[in-house]
Amino acid sequence: MLLANRRHRLLFLAIAGMDVAWVLPFVLTWVAYSARYRGMPPASSYASLLLNPLVLFLLCWAAMILYLFLADLLNRQELDTPARELAILGLLLSTSLIAIRLLLYPAAPLLDLDWLADTATAVLNFTTTLRPPLLVLAVNAYLWIRVAIATDRGVSFFSVGVTFRLGMLLVLFGGILLTTLGGQPAVVAIHAFVLFFAFGLLAVALARIDEKAIGAANSTGALLPWSRFAQLVASVLLFISTALALTRLVNPPALRALIHVFDPLWSAIGWVLMRLLVAVFLLLGPLMERFVAYMQRLAANIEPQPVGQPVGPIEYGTVETAVREWAALRYCLTAGAIIVVLLLLLLFFVRTRPRTRTAEPEEVAPEELTGSGGLERMGLSRLRELLNLLRRHGLSRQLLAAVTVQNMYANLGRIARRRGHPRSPAQSPDDYLPALRQAFPGSDEHLLRITLAYMRVHYGDQRISQDELDRLRADYAHTLAQPQASSQA
């Protein structure tokens, strides 16, 4: 993680922020609900602190980063059983108690241990009220579980994407709970949304960049260049800022104003639908009357069934009542919850052992952010090419053929770059052809035809017939089906 793999440090930090952001609305809901209905004083210092989304997020994110660092140190010690398991339990217990002491009892004397008794009371008598020590213990256990999962979690683009999609649903559900059960304004839930999408988009982008990097598999190489990382952060901030700005336009008052513009149209449609509905009722009225008369005749022939003696109200006990009144059951449930958390932590941590990694050679920046290599310029260049093709061929079948040829050649170039044969900006397609033949051995004639067709549509106005396009598609499929040379694998 942070120490074992330098290449993935930024990715793990972004994933940690995403994990904290989606649970943020649930914690805020717990605090707000307890303050309103369970007797937690809303004006107390800890309630005011935990009701601040940004402060709570920063505290939990910093704690999770610290736990990632501690987990890396523990993995480096190569402890055997049971020393490893005891160290994990000791870290969980010590960090929980330190968090309770610093957050909830900062003014208590150093040698005063009354807060330990209050913590035990909050854990064992959780049916009376959801007291703050119980909340701190639950959040700390969640952070450790996420750290334990992270030690054995892959950081591929697919796995990070699945986590992002699941977190997006959870933060949406948590925001709904926060505004309904917690009674908080919608702006508090929006803060959690912004934090989640900022770190989530950053994590997905970093995972995609790492997947596409040359020599990234099991590498412990350098971090992402800071210039590329700054560009990535700026893109995420621009996306979120644009989305927030659009909310000023797309909102209920604006939508109502837009709908009112079409009031004459709605009135005309309503008039037509009402006339159609009246016509349908006029047509179906006699049929419905005959059906009702038939059902009445059937009901008249049914004999009434005898009614039994009235039964008094039946009282049922509830689980909440049993848990509140039976202290033994309450203590058993508390012990069971603690055991489940400990088993989850041990399950993930025990499965994870220090993995040997080697500092493999890698290409840090195969496409540097020069004046012609940035993402923005690449997008503008592609847009200019499409507009040029549209100007040449218009909206015709020939436009589709030209775009198809360009896409086939671009895909071959991307695959060749991953195989170690990149094309420099100054290379023409015919000069790049020998490198393509090395990247795709056994496809010399097929690559020649695709290159010549690309030069025709890219530099000239020559047309591509349908038969020729079918042949180029067959050449493209044949080239991709050929195995990579063993010397380049």
What key attributes describe this structure?
about 500 residues, mainly alpha, 3 domains, flat
The number of helical runs is: 18
Distance between the termini: 27 Å
Strand content is under 5%
By helix and strand content, what is the structural category? mainly alpha
Number of strands: 0
The helix-strand sequence is HHHHHHHHHHHHHHHHHH
Provide the number of structural domains. Answer: 3
Unreliably modeled segments: 39-44, 354-376
Helix content: over 70%
Main sheet makeup: none
Cα Rg:
33 Å
Structure commentary:
With about 500 residues, this protein is an all-alpha fold. The chain is built from 18 helices and no strands. The chain is flat. It is about 70% helix and about 0% strand. It has helices spanning about 10-35, 45-50, 55-75, 85-105, 115-125, 130-150, 155-180, 185-210, 225-245, 250-260, 265-300, 320-325, 325-350, 375-395, 395-420, 430-440, 445-460, 465-480. The chain has three domains: about 5-215 and about 225-250 and about 325-350, no CATH class; about 260-300; about 375-485, no CATH class. The two termini are about 25 Å apart.
